[in-house]
Amino acid sequence: MTAPFRAPLPGEPWWRDAVIYQVYPRSFADSGGDGIGDLRGVLIRLDHLVDLGVDAVWLSPFYPSPQVDNGYDISDYRGVDPVFGTLDDLDALIAALHARGIRLVIDVVVNHTSDQHPWFQASRSDREDLRRGWYYWRDGRDGKPPNNWGSLFSGPAWELDPATGQYYLHTFAAGQPDLDWQHGGMRSAVHDMLRWWLDRGVDGFRLDVISMIGKDPTLPDGPVPEGAQYAAPSMGFAPSLHEHLQELHREVLAGRDLVTIGETPGASIEQARLIADPRRRELDMVFDFAHVSLDHGASKWDHVAVPLPTLKGCLAAWQQGLADHGWNSLYWDNHDQPRVVSRFGDDGAHRVASAKTLATVLHLHRGTPFVYQGEEIGMTSAHFTALEQYRDLESRGAAADLRATGHDEAAVLSALAAASRDNARTPVQWDDGPQAGFTTGTPWISVNPNAAEINVAAQRGEPHSVLAHYRRLIALRHDEPALALGSFALLLPDHDQLWVIVRRHGDVELLVVANCSAQAVTLPAELRPRPGDELLLDLAGGAPDALGPWHSRVHRRRRGAGSAAT
Ligand code: GLC
């Protein structure tokens, strides 16, 4: 059956004017009552995705896994973990999505596997095993690890394996050993696996921490920051990264109608351009971390306030940097980030307005917008009040480290409240019933008590809801080519309340004027609605010469009919 996918813009790939929705299956919807979301749960809730109008789903890992890192530790690349269902469920999900014109992008974790993966089991069994070289095995230095790297999840990045007397590298948890991409046999096995999924009908890949596959093979010591015990592990980006990605393109991607999204923590704009420039045949777009690192001080657990000019300047720099070659992904929330309304908005008095205005600003940038489950109803960070409520291994490790360095419980709780990944992993709030309609059992992580007020059911038929606003933004991306294709300019870069953007395409100009603060702003004359302006999104109502707290407008006008000065 040919799926009724929406027609792409002429001459453009389908993802150019698409909006992608991320499902983190563990927290999306539980069909079985064991308290953990599953694939049948996604199937049951498909109407929600149809109602939103998204073009594709990015599905976080569902593969067999010991679940050390909630599935980002894969022990079998060609299956489904029983906690999430079966391969038949996944086939049913692909078919059901396609029948609704929605594509499926799967999350592939190939910087590392689980330590339970048969590849690693073989590799660790014997120094002479054929798969020894698929991972990084090194001798220690004077009874210590081979270099001074720390794991991103606390402690050293090396684990001594007594059976063979060598250490293996794990950038993340000890249960996530890094694959060595210098090994051609390993790369071929990964290529085979990816082709297998494409033949099964998936429409693309989100490639987890893919920049890290390009490591300097000498694994050099790094500088240890003051007060720290270890150096940062390699974030990748060695020249070999591009060889591996170009090979992947040739071997797996070429000639297929796919999307490829590379997660690249720490990428510079230049590095992102190299990866996403279509002439170089690597990936379609990168997921960079620049704007979601702005509130990190000495570490991600040291929260600093972000002035508005810094935030908008950061996004604008990426817009300019990838304007000619490459493509941006646009995101606020995902399973690794606190909720945007709590982070850059106001999850108290102005929750609804700030959720809408932050969404407007992001979706009016050039690039492919991503909506993470729950963002479309303005879900807030978890606001946990006890350390026992945290499940994430990174957060638990950080709590132990912070305590060890003299932070009291209140300070640890406040650090986690600002930055923990669990902030975005609380269950999707479907209704105001028990456990927010997520499960009939006991959820694996607490439901946010604000589910009584913030939930999908309450917003579904409500025209002024955050949900209705997201629906409009997604429709606008499909209906107005200037969103996907227009040029981008940031006006008033130093204004500390207003975020003002102009997009131009042909004779269409879109002017976005957003008040990102809790105080009203009087607008300069050139930012007020003009006769003839079509107001595509108007949260302000009333007075044309001012914007109330977190209010915003999007104007559409024909150029020449009084363009905003740039
Ligand atoms: C990525 C994932 C994150 C995971 C890590 C290791 O950053 O998004 O959830 O913990 O990679 O796989």
Can you offer a commentary on this structure?
The protein is of the alpha/beta class and 566 residues long. 27% of the residues lie in helices and 14% in strands. The chain has 15 helices and 18 strands. The chain has an 8-stranded parallel β-sheet with strand order 9-8-7-3-2-1-11-10. A hairpin with a 2-residue loop joins strand 13 (498-505) and strand 14. Helix 5 runs parallel beside helix 6 (240-253), helix 10 packs parallel to helix 14 (466-479) and helix 11 runs antiparallel to helix 12. The longest helix has 17 residues, at 184-200. Bound molecules: alpha-D-glucopyranose.
Properties at a glance:
15 helices, alpha/beta, single chain, 8-stranded parallel β-sheet, globular, 27% helix, binds alpha-D-glucopyranose, 18 strands
How is this fold's topology laid out?
Elements: E1 20-23, H1 39-44, H2 46-52, E2 56-59, H3 87-99, E3 103-108, H4 118-125, E4 137-138, E5 158-161, E6 166-169, H5 184-200, E7 204-207, H6 240-253, E8 259-263, H7 269-276, E9 285-287, H8 308-321, E10 329-330, H9 340-343, H10 351-363, E11 368-372, H11 393-404, H12 409-419, H13 456-460, H14 466-479, H15 481-485, E12 487-491, E13 498-505, E14 508-515, E15 521-522, E16 534-538, E17 546-547, E18 552-558
Parallel strand pairs: 1-2, 1-11, 2-3, 3-7, 7-8, 8-9, 10-11
Antiparallel strand pairs: 4-6, 5-6, 12-13, 13-14, 14-18, 15-17, 16-18
Helix pairs in contact: 5-6, 10-14, 11-12
Alpha-D-glucopyranose (GLC) is lined by residues 69, 72, 109, 172, 208-209, 263, 335-336.
